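Hi L.,

As promised, ABC transporter ATP-binding protein:
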Amino acid sequence: MSAPLLQLDGVHTHIGAYHILHGVDLQVARGELTVLLGRNGAGKTTTLRTIMGLWPASSGAIRFDGAEIGALSTPEIAHRGIAYVPENMGIFGDLTVRENMLLAARGAKRVEDIDTACLDRVFGLFPALKRFWQHPAGLLSGGQKQMLAVARAIIEPRQLLLIDEPSKGLAPAIIQNMIAAFRELKQTDTTILLVEQNFNFARQLGDKVAVMDGGRIVHAGTMADLAGDEGLQQRLLGLSLAAHQ
């Protein structure tokens, strides 16, 4: 087996006086979608933010593509090929969709400088963005804003996407559109670490799964194994995935 693209070993994170992550051990396989599950407050978002350097780890090691990145700044981590889509999406509502995309394409000074193949791929995944290209992003629907947030993350080649609850607050029909887009994105061999509370969404997309509780990883394995074991679901998550289909 090849080495994981991302590996966390014994990662602790403190935020002020609060000890949030208590020795997280996590591996994200290259070219796969790993889902990070857990109850509210388990430490999932903190894990993503720690990987991205937004909240520095107090101790432990974070390795990306074989190199230690735990001491790097967020811009340096992004430059290595990691993109982060936060739960609040991070788009600029006063700017147009076009302007949001241009800001995300760091190597471009004009839209014409954006790689045509990348832009075509974005429009293929999210056709609504092409329709609303000149519209202020703040006027988009919740689903369209989420599409824009993901599109900003992939407008340049990335090795790893960190995505926090992309289906939160979306209507069921829009969630299905997002699932279809993520399936297409998976075909490009993009590696994804996804935090998600919608278990049907997670079940349909995940290759691997890690479950957090109390700031630690308490289970890691394949999504197929977790989806097929209701007893394990009840023990780890307090619910059944079947109830969320």
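The chain is about 35% helix and 25% strand.

Thanks again for sending the construct details.

K.
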